[in-house]
Amino acid sequence: MEFAAYLRVLRRRWLYVVIQVMIGLIGGLVISALSTPRYESVSRIFLATPGWGTPVVMSNSESSPYRGNEFSQLRAASYLRLSEGEDFRLRVEERLGTAPADVPDTDSLDFRVVPDTVMIELTAMAASPERAQDLANALTVEMTESIEKLETPSGTLIPVIQPIVVDSARLSGGPSEPRTGLLVGGGGVLGLLAGVSIAVVAARTSRRVHTALELATISSLPVLATFGDEARMVGEAAASRLRFNLEYLGTQFSTGILAVSSPLPDASTSAVARGLVRATAETGLRTIHVHCGIRGNSGQGSRGLADVLRGSASVDDVVTEPTPGHGYVIETGDVPGVVSGLLESRNMQAILDDLRHRFDLVVLDIPGFLASNDAAVLGKRSDAVLVVASEGISRIDDLMQTFDGFHTVGARVVGSVLIRSRSQSEHQFDYIAAPDPFRQSESTDAFVSSARTTSRTTRGVNT
């Protein structure tokens, strides 16, 4: 996946990232709030070498100050090893008068040699600043006495290495743990990584169409326009672009009978049909929008197509012009009882022939292809078919079945329209041609192959 593809995924699924980041930040705050505050006190010991570098031995390279520093650094590592023992820690607690069984869990001791020096840094942590200071002081005293005892040769009073306290333990001004900023920041970073990972995985495993390029790849046909959410109505610019692109394909597609359908019943098809009829009517052509979804109609309302099919009304009786200059409309009409076969009847063909002679463009707003065989019947009787897909809603398998199904019955699908889940800028209404099959990436090939394999297992026209 290219970097631009990752950006598109994050723009579409930004909510995943935001939620995970918020969870990470809140998690960091919760951990910080539940953690027991601990205070830190630090002391430092300098390891002097009294017998090295005196005037008596200055001429001896083996007794120079440099050699003394080397010796102190090597011995310091041994002191740290000794201080890690349990006996040493017990002696420190005894200096504070604490029994081994009463040592708090929050107490901790740490030792380290300051790099490139002959200094040992001693750190004590406890649940209160006073306890941390006392613990650090006891640790310092025990360490200095242990070093002096180990480094004083028998029969002498001067140790080879003299520990000198150069930085006494001080009372801490505030807790050193938990580090709230670090926990919250770390939680936010982990949440960001988790959100991005979830968004990418969701995009790779999604079986829904999200972009115009994906739709063009699936259908091997151009995407003629992209519209905003149908809830905000079809924009005039997008509808005009759709009309222009149909003319670009050929005048036979911008006039005559054009069917607009989708895989499943969707209000988007009506929005696209209505916008196209209006945009074409504004050019001076006579246009009409025919609602063909007679299945599932409540049977209540004004007369329309169903009444003409049953013979209880004529075409003139049901043609209306809601807004002058925006095209004509035929509603679904009153559909009581069984409607099976009405759209396949000769009456329907006669109505289409009549409308073809009266109008320059007849747009059939037909039911979802997978819902019934009505879409296949009307698509075959139309001059061209336009398939509408909704971003993040239309399933790839359903779209493949729809395109293949129209092809099976001999309907001529000329392109598709993508309904976006949010408003888009004008430059995103451009014509998007079908991708060159010789230039598709391996991931795109696999994407299309998987979709086509799934669709072949269920190809056909549902009744």
The CATH architecture of the largest domain would be: 3-Layer(aba) Sandwich
CATH class of the largest domain: Alpha Beta
Using only C-alpha atoms, the radius of gyration works out to 41 Å
Overall pLDDT level: 80
Structural class, by secondary structure, is alpha/beta
Name its key features.
single chain, 463 residues, alpha/beta, Alpha-Beta Plaits, Rossmann fold, 2 domains, eight-stranded mixed β-sheet, four-stranded antiparallel β-sheet, 16 helices, rod-shaped, disordered C terminus
Brief sketch in words of this structure:
It contains 16 helices and twelve strands.
Write the layout of secondary structure elements.
Elements: H1 3-12, H2 14-34, E1 39-48, H3 65-83, H4 86-95, E2 108-113, E3 119-126, H5 129-151, E4 162-167, H6 180-205, H7 212-219, E5 223-227, H8 236-249, H9 251-254, E6 256-261, H10 267-281, E7 287-291, H11 305-310, H12 315-318, E8 319-320, E9 328-330, H13 346-358, E10 361-365, H14 374-381, E11 384-390, H15 396-408, E12 413-419, H16 442-457
Parallel strand pairs: 5-12, 6-10, 6-11, 7-9, 7-10, 11-12
Antiparallel strand pairs: 1-3, 1-4, 2-3, 8-9
